Automatic annotation (TrEMBL), chains A, B, C, D:
Highest taxon of source: Eukaryota
Summary of the function given for this chain in its UniProt record: Auxiliary enzyme of beta-oxidation. It participates in the metabolism of unsaturated fatty enoyl-CoA esters having double bonds in both even- and odd-numbered positions in mitochondria. Catalyzes the NADP-dependent reduction of 2,4-dienoyl-CoA to yield trans-3-enoyl-CoA.
The organism of origin for this protein: Astatotilapia calliptera
Top enzyme class: oxidoreductase
Keyword field contains Nuclease: no
GO MF entry, a single one: 2,4-dienoyl-CoA reductase (NADPH) activity
The name this protein goes by in its record: 2,4-dienoyl-CoA reductase [(3E)-enoyl-CoA-producing], mitochondrial
GO-annotated cellular components: mitochondrion
A GO BP annotation: fatty acid beta-oxidation
Enzyme Commission number(s): 1.3.1.124
Catalytic activity: a (2E,4E)-dienoyl-CoA + NADPH + H(+) = a 4,5-saturated-(3E)-enoyl-CoA + NADP(+); a (2E,4Z)-dienoyl-CoA + NADPH + H(+) = a 4,5-saturated-(3E)-enoyl-CoA + NADP(+); (2E,4E)-hexadienoyl-CoA + NADPH + H(+) = (3E)-hexenoyl-CoA + NADP(+)
Length: 313, 313, 313, 313
């Protein structure tokens, strides 16, 4: 009745045509000044999504610190954003895998701006690889950045904030496959799942110290960092768009608006939340019968007639 | 070492004192005019959270329709909001349990404003009761409103929007116990879980028609409707606040800002998302060792010493 | 690099060849006599999975009652099983949608065998259909059987068991798309999600009365009832097998062994559990990068080289 | 109406009295010989739950290898079990945190028995501690054992099994707070969540090589290793039992039967499953209204009367 080609999404509505219904709205969403007098630390803030979140917070009045390994990249980003927004962006070198480096980085932050009000754990590493080709080192490269890195930054800042009786909003950027797992990105899946448990745990434990912890799980948003290591040939992208219900990738500015909301006092009652932001990709993948989207109206009539004629079990 | 009294949250930090760190910010968050020229339907919009969401959308420029059983309540609310915002709010009587009434209500809406761009399924019923005291009728009273009602409204509007090739944002208000289940509110738990599956399913299936489907799971927010049937004596409230990491209940204005964001084009890439908004209550309940929050610093020192001395397994 | 055909699973290992690693073991697993002197009620026990579970429990010594609408089918099954196992199987007509019929059915059961020790809620209805083609009646046909039917049977038995201070094991058969939702089977997804919340809720609430509540989520197992309404042309089956990690469908005898375990005293400490039994299909569907299984070893070498050359983000 | 004392579980049914309904059945459940000619590796098999699983598999015919740091403990256990079952149990020293040690351990296993058919990743470390008192070293002590250790063992065995075209069943022992997170055991929660994602990912990716991956999440089962570090004073245990719907802790023999089933060919179609085995504790904790179990029948009558009198919302 329906052939293999049809089963995989090429009939009926041209895939992605629905994207017109879902235009990205990329202006800053929060009232200007929402982050006045607030300090924000964004790890991995020099590139990609981290950069976009930094730009939005800066535009809304925050003084930002961005931290990662490549100081030159950070400095260029800091300058560009701060020249556009008029608000200071600081660049601090830090390899989050190293607890001592993290501690020194926080020393620097305390000296520069004082302890932050907003922390976004966004630094990560990832690449596609069959798991039987992973060495212990490859495993550790990813999990050290993603899980240990996030833990070191979070625990170090948490301790100092608690000592100073200062509240803060913590946000972690994970991924839609953190809960389900996924083949071919296994160290990332495991580490991001660990990050989610870390943040849900601390949401419960450290509320009493004035801290909130939330999670955003992005779906595919084109950045050089992610796409060059997850889809180097670009061959995967079409299949991805085909199955995203909103028919398009997300944009950095969209996730920046969401992150700003979650980090703002408008969300001061939000803690322990896990927000999927993926154009619907996850539910589209996970639902067992969703591939029937390729059945045409005429085929449905036939199917219905057959089902109606079925008697008994 | 720690006694029964201490195990249940009465030592150390006075419960709820942390609420100072999490002040509600209740002004409208989105840019004014965000919903200009958009029509919004809010079921159960005459009272409680539905009323707050209606007020916010109206303030942001939407033309709203509120629908439920009590026309007088709806009309009073419609008038009050519209006199404050200057934007028309329509009141339409509708018992969502009745598919014909739903169809007629949508006829009326088409006549009044055209099909809506924003749909918020918020109408619900609930009360606390041991399950062995539930009659089949009590079961149906709740599930008919919550699950069938949401389905009838959603399917009726969906069909007409599809025929008119019009996109829309659907939002369902469920609850933090929809996933975990909960004793003593079992019909509500079951029906809300059904609503979540309905919305995740349609997020996958109807994206191609330009529709988004998302879910907000509120934690406790005082409304007359909810609290008079879930905690009629008020005895439960203290225990609830004690375990909420942010130390306070949520406010209707806060959830209205979140709902407005999810329903706006700023979130046009959000579909199939389930957003818990509960001050951290859910993770606080669910984590097996969270009751250790009542252990005092001195007790921790003792515990650590004992653990250190443990040898072997 | 890899073409559309390859992306959808047709290269490398012939799909399903791995099934040799996963041979079904269909003998009764529990010690014989495990259910001696125990009464078991299986709804929908006349056909498909319900029949297989009945056969296994009967073989292990239980006295079984099977209940559904078609008395002739039930009686034939009852006779066949009981002639093979030597243990009585009773057939009782009951439409679970009707609370009065359910109550009368339980009267009959009390008269025949006394209240059951083991209850398996397995009766269900389902068919594939685009949601925009669903009438309110089609919606209710499915949700009335699956959600209300399960609730009526469970609440009626629960009440009487509580009054009699008798413990019992309740098991519900749901589906792998109950949590994720799925397009094209939306009433079933919603109702099964409701059943899961019902059982998790009662696991918490009714433990004090000696009741356990658990859930099995089957993946695809060929039965006439399910497959004639979900894949009437058979066109869907190949795609399903292709993505099941164990390379084959499940068998009724396998799920019967699992159900017998969960219902036995070996699992007397199991309550509130949700056991997916699906050959790995769910995790295979849900993981974002699982489609990379079609990348060949040679292509992986190329991909790795490209990733290695990537500099910066 | 109901006072603080009553809200916390001390009225009505004496807590735990229901345990009589849920007696543990501790005999080996599977047919004898079920694991004849099969090799099983159990990490942490010298003590606690690992020891119990080893004993059951050995009794059912498996040749077992147990591996952990303390060779003397392993040897004593190996001898005791093997003298009871008549089947060889091998003791191999291995610190799972060290990838080289893991590789050498697998060399030894290959020499002793050949690659295993059954792998149970059970080794772990844990202790209770407020997160603000955790040093980076404390964090790494736990996550290195639990997450990296499990990954090193799993990846090393997986690679060699794949090269040898040999299928296997992998089982990981995690915990009920892996998904929800939990304060005061945060490194464990994070690492166990990582393990779950690892196993779900590989269930999807490595099915084609003949491997299955499943997870058991135990609730509280008294072992020296766990209880001496999680509840050194014993003060926590009563509260735990009070909220467990089955009114008691689990026993090592019960989880051993479940693990044997999951690892056997009776479950050859099970992959990617996550089985909670906790007496219902998790659902009891997580459900928002479950504390109402302390309301007495008389109080319910009053509550119902109040709710009935409520008019409007
Ligand atoms: N883009 C997507 O589609 C997508 C989807 C799901 C999740 N995400 C998540 O979104 C976040 C941002 O990703 P992206 O797409 O924006 O990619 P990206 O540009 O590559 O961002 C990663 C950032 O992490 C930093 N980083 C890496 N290792 C570090 C270390 N050891 N110490 C400190 N910083 C380190 C990098 O800076 P340096 O090189 O200077 O250290 C870089 O700025 C990540 O958490 C990613 O997992 C992205
Ligand atoms: N407040 C909380 O703490 C809380 C927590 C979790 C979830 N929620 C959810 O939030 C939503 C709003 O609750 P609320 O607290 O604002 O309580 P509420 O004021 O009682 O709101 C319920 C609304 O539903 C309407 N409704 C009830 N039955 C209906 C029917 N058959 N047809 C049409 N409309 C019907 C009611 O209006 P009529 O009486 O006029 O029909 C009422 O306006 C609900 O979905 C609730 O489950 C609330
Ligand atoms: N097979 C699969 O692949 C699969 C996958 C996931 C889940 N499941 C679930 O497994 C269970 C069994 O399904 P199956 O595959 O064995 O299909 P089946 O043979 O069609 O079983 C369904 C049973 O439900 C009974 N039933 C239907 N409506 C009823 C009503 N109103 N009152 C009482 N009984 C009613 C039917 O008997 P009468 O017609 O005599 O009433 C029939 O015996 C179902 O819960 C299904 O959702 C199956
Ligand atoms: N008991 C419970 O209530 C409970 C609840 C939830 C989960 N669990 C889980 O069940 C499993 C068993 O716990 P248990 O209660 O039986 O406690 P246990 O007796 O302390 O078992 C832990 C085992 O792990 C081994 N181990 C620790 N570090 C290791 C390392 N670096 N390399 C190799 N082996 C190492 C230990 O042996 P050596 O000291 O010789 O290395 C020990 O045999 C654990 O995964 C635990 O998380 C238990």
């Amino acid at each position: 009745l329906y052939n293999h080609h049809q089963l995989h999404g090429s009939t009926g509505l041209r895939s992605g045509s629905q994207a017109n219904f879902f235009p990205p709205l990329e202006d800053a969403m929060l009232p200007s000044g929402s982050f006045n007098n607030r300090m924000a630390l964004i790890t991995g803030g020099g590139t990609g999504l981290g950069r976009a979140m930094t730009a939005t917070l800066s535009q809304l009045g925050a003084q930002c610190i961005i931290a990662s390994r490549k100081l030159d990249v950070l400095q260029r980003t800091a300058e560009e954003i701060s020249s556009q927004t008029g608000n200071k962006v600081h660049a601090v070198q830090c390899d989050v895998r190293d607890p001592q480096a993290v501690s020194q980085c926080v020393d620097q932050i305390e000296a520069l701006t004082g302890l932050p009000d907003v922390i976004i754990n966004n630094a990560a590493g990832n690449f596609v690889c069959p798991s039987e080709r992973l060495s212990p080192n490859a495993w550790k490269t990813i999990t050290d950045i993603v899980l240990n890195g996030t833990a070191f930054v979070t625990l170090e800042l948490g301790k100092r904030l608690i000592q100073n009786q200062k509240g803060a909003s913590f946000l972690a950027i994970t991924t839609i496959y953190a809960e389900s797992g996924s083949g071919f990105v296994v160290p990332s899946a495991s580490a991001k799942a660990g990050v989610e448990a870390l943040y849900k745990s601390l949401a419960a434990e450290w509320g009493r110290y004035g801290h909130r912890f939330n999670i955003i799980q992005p779906g595919p948003i084109r950045t050089k960092g992610a796409f060059s290591r997850l889809d180097p040939t670009g061959a995967f992208e079409k299949a991805m768009i085909d199955r995203i219900p909103t028919g398009r990738l997300g944009t950095p500015a969209e996730i920046a608006n969401l992150a700003a909301y979650v980090s703002s006092n408008y969300a001061s009652w939000m803690s322990g939340a896990v927000i999927r932001f993926d154009g619907g990709e996850y539910v589209s993948l996970a639902g067992e019968f969703n591939e029937l989207r390729s059945v045409t109206p005429d085929q449905w009539k036939l199917l219905e007639a057959m089902i109606r004629k079925t008697k008994g079990s």
